[in-house]
Amino acid sequence: MDEESTEDWRSNGADVRKGETTPKGVGTVPGLDAGRTRETASALRDRLKPRERERVERTVAELLDLFGRAHAMAVLSAFAFAGEPLRFSALEDRLEVPANTLSERLRELVEAGLLRREAYDEVPPRVEYEPTEKGHAVFPAFGHLHAWAIEHDLEPVDQ
Prior knowledge:
Layout: H1 38-47, H2 50-67, H3 72-82, E1 86-87, H4 88-95, H5 99-111, E2 115-120, E3 126-131, H6 133-138, H7 140-151
Antiparallel strand pairs: 1-3, 2-3
């Protein structure tokens, strides 16, 4: 692919919006239809026994509550694209989140089992965070959000 191209680089067959070009190295981006559709997700949920369905729905509600807290998605996104453990100070610099808020979000994400906290017995103190297996399992959602943002924006739709 040359430096900029107007060829269709989306895997879901959508046309490139008029006048758009793809940056060099973007390649194929999974479409929003990659993975489960609403129908397959509904069928999966409908197959669950009532007690298990209740547990799953409670877990989803708790997860969405956690994700809805100030800066939680920004913190997780930093880990989704980092590829290595991150120190508190690096997160604070990267995200421009107040230290007390960042500390609270990290504590909550550790308590939820999405991040692991490692404190080193050093002077000055050093603390690193890294995603757990559960945390890594959430990260594809960030890829889907980026794929969505490539194709859409948050402007009103003409009616």
